[in-house]
Every structure is written in structure tokens, then in C-alpha cells.
Amino acid sequence: MQQIAIGIDLGGTQVRAALVDEGGTILSRAEERTEALAGPERVLGQIRGLVDGLLSGKELRSVVGIGVSAPGPIDTVAGVATNTPTLAGFVNYPLRAELQKRFRYPVRLENDGIAAAIGEWQFGAGKGLENLVYVTVSTGIGGGAVVDNRVVRGRKGMAAHIGHMSVMPNGAPCPCGNRGCFEAYGSGTAFTARARERALQCAETTLGKNGADVHSRDVFTAGRLGDTLANDLIDEEAEILGRGFTSLIHIFSPEIVVMGGGLSHEFERLQQGIQTYISHWAMPAFRDVQVVRAALGQNSGLIGAAALAFLSVRSTRARTVAAG
Amino acid sequence: MQQIAIGIDLGGTQVRAALVDEGGTILSRAEERTEALAGPERVLGQIRGLVDGLLSGKELRSVVGIGVSAPGPIDTVAGVATNTPTLAGFVNYPLRAELQKRFRYPVRLENDGIAAAIGEWQFGAGKGLENLVYVTVSTGIGGGAVVDNRVVRGRKGMAAHIGHMSVMPNGAPCPCGNRGCFEAYGSGTAFTARARERALQCAETTLGKNGADVHSRDVFTAGRLGDTLANDLIDEEAEILGRGFTSLIHIFSPEIVVMGGGLSHEFERLQQGIQTYISHWAMPAFRDVQVVRAALGQNSGLIGAAALAFLSVRSTRARTVAAG
User: Fold this and answer.
1) In a domain, A276, yes or no
2) Is the CB of residue B248 less than 8 Å from the CB of residue B217?
3) Do A106 and A131 belong together in one domain?
4) What 3-state DSSP class applies to B259?
5) What is the pLDDT of residue B208?
6) Could you report the per-residue pLDDT of A180-208, keeping only the tens digit for each?
7) Mutation to test the B interface, candidates A91, A129, A153, A155, most B Cβ within 10 Å
8) pLDDT value of residue B209
9) Which strand ranges, in their side-by-side order, compose the sheet holding A26-33?
């Protein structure tokens, strides 16, 4: 019988669920707006509702488990959401235990950046590799790493909060409360803020007309039409990402860096600037590391969550074989 | 019979060898100045000479292997020194194979920061922990990480070149060729350079008298005697280290950060500033991570190299048991 896993991608905006097969293909999916202010009971009700809908009429014996990608930092060892900024009431909330009460399948929990890295590693741009770093560049910056063919989790499973490495002493304010984080300069939010600010100061740009309404896609569109300010902003963003990725390359020594998130829609435009930075400024032994676009697009985390359930089954099997 | 391992710490200045027992105790040691300009043949001759001296008259059957800590970045998977800046002629040099020709025991090779992390993990400040980051703050900054009870090696075994994460865009020149690296601000060399520069500009400091001869220990001595400039310089160094360590805490999620290297001699003076930075500016879930001094002092790498040989034997045994 074909085995399937349930993947849940719980975010502050959307909660998504999918049935995924062992090849990483989404068989069916459902999503809705997260009732982020309604408290954990309601949010878990949403997850239960989505899963029930997907499983309705399915042969239940083929489900190996449920993997859940949750917004971090979350203690995935204890299974507790200590204090999730984007979800009201998730304070010292025993998320895994509460999920487990609602499902008969084993529940696995992972910080969202790590879940997405697992998706790209098992089924996406990093399939078959032993070392990769995944970076999502979107509203914020997050990520995950696979090193020596293993997921890097660390204490409480909270590793790879790479958006919060410092790239500028006492720099721009970051949503985390610190200043000068990679996220505060490299995220889509930071990119858009720079574009708005500079557009207002620049007479020659076509972006000026939009004023505070400039969005990141407008900048890329204007750039393609030859707008100088827009292209400068994009080149600057590529340099910021290139510098951050170079740090990550020195830290993790990956074979590739996988870029996902909203800004990766414009990966073709950003790629050369990022790669040029790495090939000029990384230490010589690291200069050949390639940056690639996430192959699973917006589904890295959703498919990665499902992959967790498969990995869990496989490692149990391996332990059983070793002990047998 | 008591088993022993041979540890070699090959550096650009000193080459050191030790016999180490299974408890991490150095039974005997020898060292000499590295003939860094004489080429690999001569340097390997030095290693051979040191080991022969140590083993002279010993029962050879009890030696489990030789671990070698080498200055990176070195490809420890292929066993090749691609281009070692501090050792002339180590260009695409098959270091492990050449070492293996000279010894009857299995040879293991590791980048120096990783070897030191292994030493502290197996026998030092991180004994029994599953997650730690080791940082050496000396002429440069290097390190290694243990995550999920495993050494983080990455592609070519070159992970944890943490001295070369960027902390300032287009900042101070770094020996690696880039600008703005952690090493260019946080190393003992950078600390001393700042002290010399500011001392010359400051009439009130006792450091001024020494001018260009100020060394880092002079700054700590002056600080203890109440010199304001010296104490400002030390507090600034602690903040730089605290900021860098906070990045590493977000990236690896360790239980502790272990600080070694020359500046760790003054760990007591630096600790509070570093810890204060972390407890204020790390994301809340990471604020309790403690910074501790390397327990093995200048021997983290030497003992770590020997530990490599023991780990190698143990993993072979574990595989044999699992397959048996």
C-alpha cells in the first residue's frame, strides 16, 4: 500500500495541510487564514479540521504520521511553544502533546526554517546532497541546515535562526528586539522599506510615483524597464544576501545554498549578484559554492513537515534493524 | 592494556605532539618551532621526529591511532591541504596520505578549530553535553561546533570558519582578503591594534607611554590598575565578542559557548560583558546560554586531535556491533 504522510505548515498568516506521498508529491492540500488572535485551542481546531477534510474517505492505515512546521523559536525537544510572537496565546503551550491528543498518528514538530530545509533536502533542490543551507528571504529571514547528511537541530531544536546573526553593530532595528540582524537588512520587508525611502528622495525614478505603496515586485518590474534606482536597489539587496550567505558558507560549509521565500520569485535577477559576491569574497576554498532557488517554492515547509514523518519512520526502522 | 592515542597540533608557529590516555590526560608531550618556510617534507619530518621521541621505549601495541589538527581551511575528507596560508608549500598537498606513509597507526585529520572543539567536548568544558560551540580568540578567530551529539564537519570538513562571518559591511580588512569579518574586529590582534591606536590619541592613559609596544596583557594590567581607556577597550572587546557569540548561539543553538585562545587568559574580566550582551540581546529563548572558559587551555586542539583517534576506534566498534 502506498504510504502517505500529513504535512502541516502552521504560520502566522496561513495554516496549510497536505497529504504527501513518499516521493514528496502533494496528493491533496487545503489551507485557510490562521486565526492567529483566537488562541491555541482554535488554531488546533483549524488544523484538525483541515486534516479531517483531507482524509475524508481515504484509507487511514496508509498514514505514517503527521509532521508540523511551526513558527519559531519553539522547543521541539520538549514540544513546547515558549512564546510565539505571531500566534496569540502560544505561551509555554505544550503544542506537540495537544496535537497528539487530536490525532491517532505520531506527531513530529519542527521549527519552520528547519522543516523547509528538510523539504528541499529530501525532495527539492538539495536532493541527494549531504550538506546544504536553506535560507528563506521573505517578510523575515529564516533557515535550516543539513550537515554531514543530518539535520542540524541543536539545543531545544532551535538551531539555524540565521536571520538573527548580526551584520551591523547597533544597526537597524529588527523585529526580534535586537539591532543590526541579517533580517533587518536582507529581508523582503527591509528591501521594500529601502525602496520606499529612496524613491521619495529620487526625482528620476518611476518608483517615485508610487510613494509609500511601492512593493518589492514593483522594484523588480521597474528594474526590468531600465529604472536606475530600482536596479541599484536590487544590486544592493543581492550584495546584502551575498554577504550573509558567505557568512553561512564559512559557518556550515554546505555544498549549496538554497534560497526560498517571497524574494526567490526574482531569483534569476538576484542570482548573479549573490554569486559574484561569494566568488569574490568567500575564502578561496569556499568560492565554488552555488546558490540555487528552492525547488519546492512555497511548499518547502509543507512538504518538509511531511518528510519529517517519513524520516521518523525510517529511523525507527533502522534502529529496529540495528537492534535485531 | 591502557590505550593511548597520539595527538598532533600542527600550527604555523609551533608543532606539538602528545601521548594522551582515554581519559584525556596528557602522558607526555613534546613541541618545537614549526619550520613553516621549509616545505611539507621538512614539517612532516618534524612530526615524525616528535612522535618517535615520545614513543621511544613505549609498548607500541597500545597506540590506537594518530589524530592531527591542521590549520585550515583543509579538505579533511580528501585529506588534502589545498592552500595553507601559514605553511609554505602546502598547496594541494596530500597531507593525510603523506602522514600515513610515515606511521603504522591510522591517521585522522581535522581542521584546527574543529579539533579543539572535540577536545573540549570529549574532555573539557563541554564534557557530556550534546551541543556546544567552541571559539578560539587569539591571533585570529576560529572554532568548531558539536550539534546533536555530533561534530559539525560539512563539505570537505571545512565547517565552523566562524572568524569569517561578516559583522560589518565593507569593514576593516581581514587576513582572509575580505573586509568586516568577526576576526577583523574580535581577535586579539584587532584588540591590540585598537589599543595602540587609541593610546596614542589619549593623554590620560598609562598605555600611552608604551605607544606601539602595547600588548593585550598590558591593557588588562592597566585596566586592573584603574586606567579608564584600558577598561573601555576591554568592555568594547567584550561587546564585540558578545555580539559574535550571540550570532553563533542563534545559528547553532548550543548549550554553552566555550572560549579558548590567548584572550581567554583574561576570561574572568571579559565574561561579564559577554554574558550581559547575550542576556540582553539574544532572542529570549537563547538568553540563558552560558559562556565558559576552555578547560584544556592551550591544549584543546592537541587533546582534541588525540580524541579523534579514540572516536574513530569507538565508531568502528559501534559499526561492528551494529552489523554483528
Assistant:
1) yes
2) no
3) no
4) strand
5) 74
6) 999 999 999 999 999 999 998 888 888 87
7) A155
8) 61
9) A26-33, A14-21, A4-10, A63-70, A107-111
Number of neighbours of residue B185 by Cβ within 10 angstroms: 23
Q: Is residue A311 part of a domain?
A: no
- Closest approach of B314 to chain A, Cα-based (Å): 16
Quick one: pLDDT band at residue B211, thresholds 50, 70, 90? low
Beta carbons of A165 and B251 less than 8 Å apart: yes
Domain that holds residue B91: 4-118+301-323
B254 to A154: CB separation less than 8 angstroms, yes or no: yes
Same domain, B135 and B258: yes
- B173 and B214 assigned to the same domain: yes
pLDDT band at A323 (very low <50, low <70, confident <90, very high): low
Please indicate whether, in this complex, the C-beta atoms of A158 and B285 are within 8 angstroms of each other: yes
The verdict on residue A305 lying in a domain is: no
Cross-chain CB nearest to B152 (options A147, A176, A250): A147
The pLDDT value given to residue B312: 82
For the record, the C-alpha cell of B83 comes out as 592552500
Angle among Cα B250, B137, B304 to the nearest 5 degrees reads: 85
CA B279 – CA A174 distance, rounded (Å): 17
Which among A80, A92, A147, A174 is the top mutation candidate for probing chain B, defined by the most B β-carbons within 10 Å of its own β-carbon? A147
Task: Say if CB A169 and CB B168 are below 8 A apart.
Answer: yes
Contact of B7 with chain A, judged by CB distance below 8 Å, is answered with: no
Alpha carbons B25 and B22: distance in angstroms, whole number: 7
Interface of A with B in 144-173 (CB under 8 A): 147-148, 150, 152-162, 164-169
Q: What would the pLDDT profile of B96-111 be if each residue is shown by its tens digit?
A: 999 999 999 999 999 9
Rg of chain B over all Cα atoms, to the nearest angstrom: 20
Beta-carbon separation of A247 and B166 below 8 A: yes
Distance CA A178, CA A91 (A): 21
- Residues in chain B with CB shorter than 8 Å from the CB of A162 are 250-251
Q: What is the CATH number of the domain that holds B311?
A: 3.30.420.40
Minimum mean pLDDT among A58-67, B104-113, B158-167: which range?
Answer: A58-67
- β-strand B256-260 against B132-137: which pairing, if any? parallel
* Structural domain count, chain B: 2
Provide the ipTM: 0.96
Domain end position, chosen among A42, A77, A111: A111
Residues B319 and B272 occupy one common structural domain? no
DSSP string computed for A16-68? EEEEEETTS-EEEEEEEE--TTS-HHHHHHHHHHHHHHHHTTS-GGGEEEEEE
Strand, coil or helix: A187: coil
Q: Are A278 and A240 in a shared domain?
A: yes
Most B CBs within 10 A among A250, A286, A315, A320, hence the mutation to make, goes to A250
Render the burial of B212-228: b for 16+ CB within 10 Å, e for the rest.
eebebebbbebbeeebe
**pTM for this one?**
0.96
Residue A23's Cβ-side half-sphere holds a number of Cα atoms within 13 Å equal to 3
All cell numbers assigned to A182: 541579517
Segment A127-150 shows an average pLDDT of 97
Asked if A281's CB is within 8 angstroms of B177's CB, the reply is: yes
**Burial status of residue B304 (CB atoms within 10 A of its CB: 0-12, 13-18, 19 or more):** buried
